[in-house]
Amino acid sequence: MTYLAQIVFVLVLAGAAFILSKRIKRIKGNIQLGKPLATDGHSSERLKNMLLIALGQKKMFKKIIPAFLHLLIYVGFLVINLEVLEFILDGILGTHRLFAPYLGGFYNVLMNVFEFLAVAVLFSCVAFLIRRNLLRVKRFYAEEMTSWPTLDANLILVIEIVLMVAILTMNATDQLLQVRDEHYTATGSLFFSSFLMPLFENMSTGTLIVVERFAWWFHIVGILGFAVYVTYSKHLHIFLAFPNTYYAHLKAKGEMTNMDSVTNEVNMMLGIQTDQNTAPAEVGRFGAKDVNDLSWLNIMNAYSCTECGRCTSECPANQTGKKLSPRKIMMDTRDRAEEVGKSLASGGKGLEDGKSLLGDYVTNEEINACTSCNACVEACPVNINPLEIILEMRRYVAMEESGSPASWNSMFQNIETSFAPWKFAPTDRFNWSQELKEESSS
Amino acid sequence: MSEIKIPVMADKAAAGETPEILFWVGCAGSFDERYKSVTKAFIKILNKVDVSFAVLGPEEACTGDPARRAGNEFLFQMQAVANIQVMNGYNVKKVVTACPHCFNTIKNEYPALGGNYEVIHHATFLQQLINEGKVSLKGGGEFKGKKITYHDSCYLGRANNIYEAPREVLEALDAELVEMKRCRTKGFCCGAGGAQMFKDAEKGNKEVNIERTEEALQTGADTIAVACPFCMTMMSDGVKNKEKENTVKVKDLAELIAEAEGL
Question: Chain B residues with CB inside 8 Å of A441's CB?
Fold first, then answer.
């Protein structure tokens, strides 16, 4: 009988691992649809960013209440995962509370810490559900927050609550069993689950065993299932926040990446000799029309987005009623990468499906509304950069389609002919000096 | 007062001199009626502190910033490479400008195209002058007791992490500096960046500059200080729209310093 449980457990574990590895491979492939990017060393600075921003949650604390609630869930997630290790080993070996004999009295301390965190996670998830659904915090309600993103957010919170309830139920029934049957490993008193014991103490030992086992299986299968679910949801930030903050640009936020392919042509046009006598690399498309024109970092940014909407709530265009929402730009980028990846995996047309990120997902009206103010970049707790994607799309529109707004085309023309964005005669550029001399001598 | 000097690079080079600083005026500083007075105020300050500087004059051209932000990388690079050739030709080492967009472009984006200079925005330059005691403001002057609010330019603030220099300049005026609800890293854009200056806003329910002006007016400040030509236009338009132009002034840092100095 115990062997049967072990076999079932190993099969469940293997099944979850198989699906997970396939999903990870797919997401990795989708991210690699993007163009290569030189991530130029500076590893200590990058590490520091990752430790401060991802591990240390530095940017989360710009909004103190959600930051605190989130911190509880985050610490709970990190620490309770230690217990998952015991769950997995118990499942494979057919043991029960494998670590208890080795840790002695410390096991009790550890279990009480886990229970405290489980309760903290529960509390935070309930608070988050209230913020989302009852207080209706504004940034959770926007055009891009359609049925799936809304359901996804609530599902994650509900799943976490249910998983925590399972842990506490398991500990409560286990404590009762420890009294009735000496074969059960003694854990010592567990503070929080003790409050649940009255619910179960009138049950027969047989029923208690069933409830305890059910809670154990529910928790571990639930966690494995949740791990698979995460790869389909916005919740991937729990892993991707780390590489995302590590690889985020270190340069000043105001700097746009130079297009070297254009530099080659400009130098040739102006007859400037360069050190590189190599033929210009094959120029693909200027700017970005689809996900493969973006960098892999842009796409990883998209997979790291947990749709918190801090970017959108700071965006001056969005806050004054324009169509642009930086969060939507990230969601669209991820959805398009998923669509292309899915198509490629089933032998479909992939990028050649007649659709594209710009056009089918993002409109010109959205990208034209951006003031490039960097508020979205500043606001993102995990250093996602929606602005770069917007500006890459503008490059495509301007250089491949000549489709910029008419007044921008006039501005381009003014710069070309008068060397200023306004239509002034270049010979008048220095008139102010004469004016100043006259004013100050009078 | 001795005659104001506006040295031009070409003349200096012809005389075999290499001025320490190139004052990059920018297109708004050269052509925009309102922003020309910022250029003039800054020139007066440069004259007063007797620093070795020159301007490019007719040789200056748009940095290409609005073209690049609007997506026209070709045009940007054409402008950039031409400007870099001119500046490198004069062996320019240090550039000061009163435009955060020119500042950002020359400082951060010209190096990739062969233009490497020490670039300073005039807010930082003014702060240095004050710290060095070269501009010693008459305490208790005309700004004493007046409320000034500072509007962060995105291209100085978030783009380049310059938040304190402009505030220190204002504090030197002995005025009361009052902050808007959204300031520093959370500063709300004036609405003109990213080449928005050169087109109508997309459809929405409010203009960005109106939203920002309302916030500035809520502080009760008599003066809205700015450090960017685009912010200057947007905030001035906002104040006019709210019919407050008689009571609330929009002023650049250089203008305020020049006024306090009686220049």
Answer: 3-4
pLDDT value of residue A39: 75
CB–CB contact B40 A255 (8 Å): no
Boundaries of every domain in chain B: 9-127, 136-260
A interface mutation test: which of B24, B47, B77 has the most A CBs within 10 A? B77
State pLDDT tens for residues B128-187. Answer: 999 999 987 766 567 888 999 999 999 999 999 999 999 999 998 888 999 999 999 999
Phi, psi of A136 (to 5 degrees): 50, 55
Give pLDDT tens digits for A118-139: 999 999 999 999 999 999 999 9
pLDDT band at residue A218 under the 50/70/90 scheme: very high
Residues of chain B found within 8 Å of residue A442, distances taken between Cβ atoms: none
Query: What's the pLDDT tens digit per position in A41-80?
Result: 899 999 999 999 999 999 999 999 999 999 999 999 989 8
Contact B71 A398 (CB under 8 A): yes
Chain A contact for B31, CB < 8 A? yes
State the sign of the Cα–Cα–Cα–Cα dihedral B52, B172, B97, B258: negative
Which CATH architecture fits A247-252+284-404?
Orthogonal Bundle (1.10)
- Work out the average pLDDT over A262-280: 75
> Is A251 exposed, middle or buried, given 0-12, 13-18 or 19+ CB atoms closer than 10 A?
exposed
Q: What count of other Cβ atoms lies within 10 Å of the Cβ of residue A422? A: 17
Rounded to a whole number, what is the distance in Å from the CA of A220 to chain B's nearest CA? 43
Q: Do B78 and A270 touch (CB under 8 A)?
A: yes
Contacts of B197 in chain A (CB under 8 A): 421
CA distance, residue A325 to nearest chain B CA (Å): 12
- Domain locations along chain A: 2-240, 247-252+284-404
Instruction: Please name the residue of chain B whose CA is at the shortest distance from the CA of residue A376.
Output: B186
Contacts of B232-235 spanning 24+ positions with Cβ under 8 A: B232/B28, B232/B34, B232/B35, B232/B38, B233/B28, B233/B32, B233/B34, B233/B35, B233/B192, B233/B197, B234/B190, B234/B191, B234/B192, B234/B208, B234/B209, B235/B151, B235/B190, B235/B209
Interchain CB distance below 8 Å, A421 and B185: no
Compute the distance between CA of residue A130 and CA of residue A142 in angstroms, rounded to an integer: 18
How high is the ipTM of this complex?
0.97
pLDDT at residue A256, as a whole number: 98
The fold of B136-260 is: Rossmann fold (3.40.50)
**B9-127: CATH topology:** Rossmann fold (3.40.50)
Question: Residue A81: its pLDDT value, please?
Answer: 83
Q: For residue A284, name the pLDDT band (cuts at 50, 70, 90).
A: confident
**Mean predicted confidence (pLDDT) in A166-182:** 95
What is the pLDDT at residue A280? Answer: 54
Distance between A83 CA and the closest CA of chain B, angstroms? 40
Closest chain B residue to the Cα of A322, Cα to Cα: B204
CA distance A237 to chain B (A): 24
- Rounded-to-5 percentages of helix, strand, coil across chain B: 45, 10, 40
Tell me, yes or no, if B262 comes closer than 8 A to chain A by beta carbon: no
Shortest CB distance from A371 goes to which of B77, B186, B191?
A: B191
Query: Sign (positive/negative) of CA torsion B83, B88, B91, B92?
Result: positive
Across A93-123, b (16+ Cβ under 10 Å) vs e yields: eebebbbbeeeeeebbebbbebbebbbbbbb
The minimum CA-CA distance between A398 and chain B, rounded to whole Å, is: 5
pLDDT at res. B114: 96
* pLDDT given for residue A2 in this prediction: 64
For residue range A305-362, list pLDDT tens digits in order: 999 999 999 999 999 999 999 999 999 999 999 999 999 999 999 999 999 999 999 9
Which element (helix H / strand E) includes A302?
helix A296-304
